Amino acid sequence: MNTVDALFPAPTFPPSVLSPQRFPGISTDSLSALQYVLKDNHKRWHIFWNDLKFHNHITHRALALYALGSSGAPIRTFYEQDTQIQRSPIEPPEAITPANFVEHLADERYYQAYVAFFSKEIDDKGTTRVLEEYIFSEPFQSQGSEMLNHFMSSLLHAFIHVGHGLEFGLKGMVVEGLALAAVHDPDGKDIFPPSFFNSGMQAAEAQVTQLLCSLALNKKEVDGAVPTAKDTHVFDVIARILKDERLRVECVKNAGKEYKQAVDDYGPAIREYVAQWTIDTTKPGEVERKMEELFWACSVLYAVGGFDEAKGFTAEFFLMHLVTSSLFLPSLIAYLTPRSQALLLRGYLSTVLTWWVGRGRPALNIKSFMTSTPTQPAVPAHDGETNTKEIDNPFLPIIQSAILHPNDHLPKVQRSFAHFSALYGNRPAGYFKGTELDGAELLDGSLFVRAAVLTMDYVGWVREGQSAKLWHLGGFF
Hints:
mainly alpha, 1% strand, 20 helices
């Protein structure tokens, strides 16, 4: 087997029962198309498609379409379209070694060298040890390295890329994602200070295997999303931030640098709130509970935060990435030791809250959202009329339309909402009673289909004849 074949074999089953499962429709044709795209992209294109370090998303769309049960044709067609803006690989000036690893961080010329470095490291040590060492260990968090910061920066794209690799069992995606983390620019300094790493439990033995970590997730689901007297729910944290006038953002001072601005202006205050969120990985079911909190939080910040009863729904581009990135938490968690699981969850929450504040900290009128938004899609018919017949499974037309939509982010966010609905669609109103967030007791499992319908209506039912509309980029100021 040649090198690129070893990097991109046929996808495996997901590593956790909380990872998204594959839709029916996968075939030898779709697998052939997927592997062609993954391999050809790896050989022919750089990880950034311009000098501003905008990310090459090709593999993310291809894997989302494959997971949604697409035939091979859309996977191939969208790949050919997406290649039109890509850049050729850059020959690195030298190889990356342990001695010069830190020296060339944030230098895109070394992307291919970091790919080769991480590929060999995984061959020698395994994926879990490489993640533990280069992303979560304290030696790689000092000034000049800050690898957890690199991993969470740039709208979580390295996090997402590695998450794809772990979900689908693709070493190539893991090494590309780690190399991406190495070469893109960190969003500010001291986002995760030394105290952040000292607050967790002691590191587990280095020999802890990915199998044991994933088995820890494959237990009977443990109820208890509502905190006990000693627990702080993520909704409590969000409620406190909404009341803090220090975190009111009136405008964007530097367009394109909203996250860095939020880090510089509000980082210490946000860290105070993140530290209040309780995580105890020694408690049975705690990791599952905390992931569920994050799934709900990201969906609420995007969907409820984007809804205004008078103005309608606004699908905000940056907050949408909170939803699509949260999908990969279970697959990442499955490969980590308990200490790193806690660091990942808390670091992720810090990133999510900073983006939310940086985009204007939109209000969360849960009552209005839950009483004014549809749970049924109004799917346009090809004759221009709206199909008014009730749809037994509203996600079926949504997914079908998302597969063929020209915007590459739509199938990703709809895959996320479909998965969260599969996990938590039967959660009743009152499930979050007892949290501090106003109106949280009204939330139920219909949140996810409501968010999916609103998103579809905003960007357009293109397959059904509507025009495509772009995501909103202006935040909420």
